[in-house]
Amino acid sequence: MTSSKADRKAALDVAAWMFNIVTSVGIIMVNKALMATYGFSFATSLTGLHFATTTIMTIVLRWLGLVQPSHLPVPELIKFVICANLSIVGMNVSLMWNSVGFYQITKLCMIPVSCLLEVLLDKVRYSRDTKLSIVVVLVGVAVCTVTDVSVNARGVLAATIAVWSTSLQQYYVHFLQRKYSLTSFNLLSHTAPGQAASLLLVGPFMDFWLTSKRVDAFNYTVPSVLFIISSCSIAVGTNLSQFICIGRFSAVSFQVIGHMKTILVLILGFTFFGKEGLNFHVVLGMILAVIGMVWYGNASAKPGGKERRSYPVVERLQKPVSSSDSKAVEEV
């Protein structure tokens, strides 16, 4: 029975990762074609449309009875939406104000920041092998993605906001699911409407500030609209798979294994958009990153590889604790 449960969990874990990788890489490729081919450069507004589509999906699922009612306190929801929106806007502004190399370094910084949050807030302890595997992943991705690096004060500020807000948002996904016993569908049904409304309200102004173009003045042709619809449809899976993966694992694991998406995007880019930029350093970086990801998976799964103390979902009543009761504390 134990072996069967372990096999089932492993199969579901792999399915969750594959779901996230396929949808994430798919939306990147669709958005790249949408922006490069049709000039639709309104990233914040497009993200608002993504969450609006996700909101419609959650409403339909609730109406069909496939998502059970749940509760999330409004203060928690507001904090999550603020972190999530700061993450989206911060990453867009960071990309505009920084060089591509520094932007890639910014994305890599999310792993150590996520580790720090888990150490401080969840009292997580990492083994030496787990720490070393994370370093190998960081070095590998840096070698194959970081090129020109130029730094300026406002770019550093935008990058700092992007890194911390993204790390907090991803930590919060895991925290809220565990604290309030929410499924991925439940949490998404609570957060998507707030993100959709706020991003659709702020998005056009943010995009005009970043691109000096108005989203309502864009030449919406049939092919471009079809790409927008495709992007929104895939985004539903991307948003859901992110919540599933972080809920099943952690923000750090999501960041580490998630860099596999970066490697796949590079490979697909070289395959479909030309081999310019493909050299020994890029190949070496890819190999190092993959080795680090496999090492991290093995190291963190071993006893003592990554240990955390669970926080209670429900407050316990004040009563004497017997020795038999003390053994019933759940370990995560």
Topology (elements, then pairings):
Blueprint: H1 2-38, H2 43-63, H3 74-97, H4 100-122, E1 125-126, H5 128-145, H6 153-179, H7 184-211, H8 222-248, H9 251-272, H10 280-301, E2 306-307, H11 323-326
Antiparallel strand pairs: 1-2
Please give a structural write-up.
Residues 310-332 have low confidence and may be disordered. 76% of the residues lie in helices and 1% in strands. α6 crosses α8 (222-248). It is mostly helical. It has a two-stranded antiparallel sheet. The protein has a domain at 2-123 and 149-249. The radius of gyration is 21 Å and the shape is globular. The two termini are 20 Å apart. The longest helix is centred in the N-terminal third of the chain and has 37 residues, at 2-38. It contains eleven helices and two strands; from the N terminus they run ααααβααααααβα. It is found in: Membrane. Residues 22-296 form the Sugar phosphate transporter domain. The chain crosses the membrane at residues 12-30, 42-65, 77-95, 132-149, 155-173, 185-206, 218-240, 252-274, 280-299.
